[in-house]
Amino acid sequence: LALGQLQYLGRWKTSCTCSCFGINDVSTLRHQIYTDERTVPQVMNQRQGGSYSL
Protein backbone atom coordinates (compact mmCIF):
# COMPACT_ATOMS: atom_id res chain seq x y z
CA LEU A 1 0.00 0.00 0.00
CA ALA A 2 1.54 3.28 -1.09
CA LEU A 3 1.77 6.03 1.49
CA GLY A 4 0.30 8.52 -0.96
CA GLN A 5 -2.78 6.35 -1.46
CA LEU A 6 -3.25 6.00 2.29
CA GLN A 7 -2.98 9.76 2.78
CA TYR A 8 -5.45 10.41 -0.06
CA LEU A 9 -7.91 7.90 1.33
CA GLY A 10 -7.49 9.41 4.79
CA ARG A 11 -8.23 12.89 3.51
CA TRP A 12 -11.22 11.67 1.51
CA LYS A 13 -12.71 9.80 4.47
CA THR A 14 -11.97 12.69 6.83
CA SER A 15 -13.69 15.25 4.60
CA CYS A 16 -16.67 12.94 4.16
CA THR A 17 -16.84 12.36 7.91
CA CYS A 18 -16.66 16.05 8.75
CA SER A 19 -19.47 16.89 6.35
CA CYS A 20 -21.72 13.90 7.04
CA PHE A 21 -21.19 12.81 10.63
CA GLY A 22 -19.06 15.41 12.37
CA ILE A 23 -15.42 15.88 13.26
CA ASN A 24 -15.79 13.70 16.37
CA ASP A 25 -15.79 10.59 14.19
CA VAL A 26 -12.47 11.42 12.50
CA SER A 27 -10.51 9.33 15.00
CA THR A 28 -12.88 6.43 14.37
CA LEU A 29 -12.40 6.72 10.62
CA ARG A 30 -8.63 6.80 11.05
CA HIS A 31 -8.84 3.56 13.03
CA GLN A 32 -10.97 2.00 10.30
CA ILE A 33 -8.41 3.03 7.67
CA TYR A 34 -5.72 0.97 9.38
CA THR A 35 -8.19 -1.86 9.97
CA ASP A 36 -9.30 -1.96 6.34
CA GLU A 37 -5.85 -1.76 4.75
CA ARG A 38 -6.53 -5.01 2.92
CA THR A 39 -9.55 -3.53 1.16
CA VAL A 40 -7.87 -0.22 0.30
CA PRO A 41 -6.09 -1.47 -2.88
CA GLN A 42 -9.40 -2.80 -4.19
CA VAL A 43 -11.11 0.52 -3.56
CA MET A 44 -8.25 2.40 -5.21
CA ASN A 45 -8.38 0.14 -8.26
CA GLN A 46 -12.08 0.90 -8.63
CA ARG A 47 -11.50 4.64 -8.25
CA GLN A 48 -8.72 4.68 -10.86
CA GLY A 49 -11.40 4.18 -13.51
CA GLY A 50 -11.81 7.94 -13.80
CA SER A 51 -13.01 9.36 -10.49
CA TYR A 52 -9.51 9.03 -8.99
CA SER A 53 -8.51 12.67 -9.20
CA LEU A 54 -7.43 15.30 -6.69
UniProtKB/TrEMBL annotation:
This is Uncharacterized protein. It comes from the Eukaryota. It comes from Laccaria amethystina LaAM-08-1.
